[in-house]
Design a protein that fits this description.
This is FmtA-like protein. InterPro entries: AmpC-like, Beta-lactam-related, Beta-lactam/transpept-like. By secondary structure, the protein is of the alpha+beta class. It folds into three domains: about 15-355, Beta-lactamase; about 375-460, no CATH class; about 465-615, no CATH class. About 35% of the residues lie in helices and about 15% in strands. An eight-stranded antiparallel beta barrel has the order 12-13-14-15-16-17-18-19. The protein has a seven-stranded antiparallel beta sheet with strand order 3-2-1-11-10-9-8, with helices on both faces. β5 (about 225) and β6 (about 230-235) form a beta hairpin. The longest helix is centred in the C-terminal third of the chain and has 35 residues, at about 465-500.
Length: about 625
């Protein structure tokens, strides 16, 4: 099953022993205690958990409510949940079935199969292939999709209309990407001659008896999706069902799928499960990598494959331990206070800690005479969007910071928990001191870490979010001062005019610039309050993006206004100093407002909050 798999990828010196169902006594109690505790603490309405071992379900339970208001309990056999990106497994399976039939080629240019549109030839001689699409290495920019269940476009039409830029040559770095997987789904549709949804229903669901699973929009049924604040959302569908926007399933159906994967069931397609689970790409052979849509996430020496799905108000996790024949699946119909539902990794790690042999991290020795100064700097996720408003997420995602140590190792912040020390045991490859995780620098300016479906690219000081936050720190107080201060100053001036003629320092022609500054300040403040409230609850922001909500578009129009307003204010500032409008303190105040609005406009342009990028 694991031919050509490089044994070091699990980061363990001794392989773990296989576990049998008899080795899982009391697993139901463990699951009950964990789930009920987390649901109460994080206020998650409903959860299902399925644990499969040696071909049978040892846990298959529903907890809480599918619909809180109607008091409909969660039923693992009947309650549907949106499965989000777990759908990508079905897309990979469908594509590999057609590869097995000789109708698709993993290494052919995808344009060979496309007729209504073509992928742009950004890197001549380096075409995008199906292999790239199924390992997140096609190099597409991260972009958003707009739409709702009522206006979802056909798959090919949506792909043609929203093709993102290619940011890196294919096969040179992993970067989780929805567009690429949707394109793989469209290849299935094009070659098979049937809609993607129909193909999956007939060739993925039907052979396994997954009768309660649906790909098409609107199949959620009675289950409600609950956001962090307890409200519900209807944002259950968008373009690109092949990437996970819309499909729904039950715990029992997904248990059947886990069993088929663990057993390498030929009903998935001849050799398909083994190919999906085999490592197909890694940034470095000493690190975990990607299968075909499965992501490797080793834990304490055990090879773990996972796929997670996130939709507004719904979250799923599927984790397999292929060598032990164990599968764990978790679904939640609420964001909870943590924003991600019940964390499947946390539950899986508890089960592994309880029932599988414990192992020590592999011992490594520091490379004599090594230096790590060339790796110092700030590194940002390759999934950071370049061309869409999703780039704004980078403002709240701190880059990884790397500093060299005297012993040739490195210290990092931003790699999960706090500051961590890493030992360089081979050139450019580091292992956490006393831990299992590894870091590598496969290319100059590129960082790869264990358990990640992205790489991290080094950024310069002008690209660091802290600089942009500093610009906002200048913009917001000055804009608020303009919004509140100019009306007060105008009232004072009006009172003075009633008792004395206007001063020579306040010509009539200077009134319009003041009004312009007040309006610009109002625009910045209103946008900041509105957009900040969205970012404060990202579970609510995602539905607005998916639906292209009028509120979001209105806020982005305001952001776009700051560019011409900033230009006008800078011109007025120059005129104020040249013609000596107002007294010196007034000119200084006006200059600060102009600089603040300009700083805001720079940030808005940098994060694609202006112009056609959001339309």
């Amino acid at each position: 099953m694991f031919l050509k798999l490089i044994t070091a990828l699990v980061l363990a010196s001794t392989p773990a022993q296989a576990a049998q169902p008899s080795d899982l006594p009391g697993v139901g109690t463990l699951v009950d205690e964990h789930v009920t505790s987390v649901m109460a603490e994080e206020k998650i309405p409903g959860v299902t958990v399925t644990v499969v071992a040696d071909g049978r379900e040892v846990v298959d339970k529903g907890y809480g409510w599918a619909d809180v208001e109607r008091r409909l309990p969660v039923d693992p056999e009947r309650t549907r949940f949106l499965i989000g990106s777990e759908t990508k497994l079905f897309t990979a399976q469908a594509a590999l079935q057609l590869v097995g039939e000789g109708r698709l080629d993993l290494d052919a240019d995808v344009n060979t199969y496309l007729t209504t549109f073509k992928i742009r030839d950004t890197y001549p001689g380096r075409p995008v292939t199906l292999r790239h699409l199924l390992t997140h290495t096609a190099g597409f920019d991260e972009d958003h999709v707009l739409g709702s269940g009522s206006d979802v476009r056909p798959l090919g039409e949506g792909l043609a209309a929203t093709q993102p830029a290619r940011l890196r040559p294919p096969g040179t770095g992993v970067s989780y990407n929805n567009y690429g997987v949707a394109l793989a789904g469209y290849l299935v549709e094009t070659v098979s001659g049937m809609p993607f949804e129909k193909y999956v229903e007939q060739h993925v669901f039907a052979p396994l008896g997954m009768k309660d699973s649906v790909i098409a929009c609107g199949g959620l049924g009675d289950t409600r999706a609950y956001l962090t604040d307890g409200s519900t959302t209807t944002a259950d569908c968008a373009d690109f069902a092949a990437s996970g926007a819309g499909p729904a399933s039950t715990a029992s159906d997904m248990a059947a799928y886990m069993r088929a994967q663990l057993e390498l069931d030929p009903r998935l397609g001849t050799g398909v499960a083994a190919e999906m689970q085999r490592q197909q790409y890694t940034e470095d052979p000493r690190l975990p990598g990607m299968g075909f849509m499965w992501e490797e996430s080793p834990y304490k020496g055990h090879r773990v494959l996972f796929k997670a799905g996130d939709m507004p108000g719904m979250h799923t996790y599927m984790l397999l331990l292929p060598e032990q024949g164990i599968g764990i699946h978790v679904m939640s119909n609420g964001d909870g206070t943590g924003g991600h539902g019940l964390d499947g990794f946390e539950l899986a790690h508890k089960i592994i800690d309880r029932y599988l042999p414990d192992a020590r991290p592999p011992s490594v020795k520091a490379l004599p005479g090594a230096s790590a100064e060339q790796y110092e700097g700030w590194y940002q996720s390759s999934r950071t969007s370049h061309g869409s408003l999703l780039k704004v997420q980078a403002l709240t995602d701190s880059p990884i910071h790397v500093t060299a140590t005297a012993d040739g190792g490195i210290l990092t912040t931003g790699v999960k928990r706090g500051q961590r020390h890493w030992i360089q045991f081979q050139p450019g490859v580091f292992q956490e001191e006393g831990g299992w995780d590894r870091i590598a620098f496969p290319e100059p300016g590129q960082l790869a870490i264990s358990r990640s479906s992205v790489v991290f690219d080094r950024i310069g000081p002008l690209d660091h979010p802290s600089l942009h936050l500093a610009l906002l720190a200048l913009a917001l107080p000055t804009s608020l001062a303009a919004l509140l201060g100019f009306p007060v100053a105008a009232a004072v001036r009006a009172a003075r005019r009633r008792s004395s003629p206007p001063s020579a320092g306040s010509p009539a022609g200077s009134r319009l610039p003041r009004l312009l500054a007040w309006f610009a300040g109002a625009v910045v403040v209103v946008f900041t309050v509105g957009f900040g409230s969205l970012l404060a609850d990202q579970s609510r922001a995602l539905p607005l993006v998916l639906e292209g909500a009028p509120m979001l578009i209105a806020l982005l129009v305001l952001a776009s206004l700051t560019v011409p307003l900033a230009a006008a204010l800078l011109a007025c500032t120059a005129m104020a100093w040249w013609k000596r409008w107002w007294r010196t303190p007034g000119r200084i105040a006006y200059t600060l407002v102009a600089l603040g609005v300009t700083a805001f406009a720079v940030v808005a342009v940098t994060y694609n909050l202006v112009g056609p990028s959001f339309t």
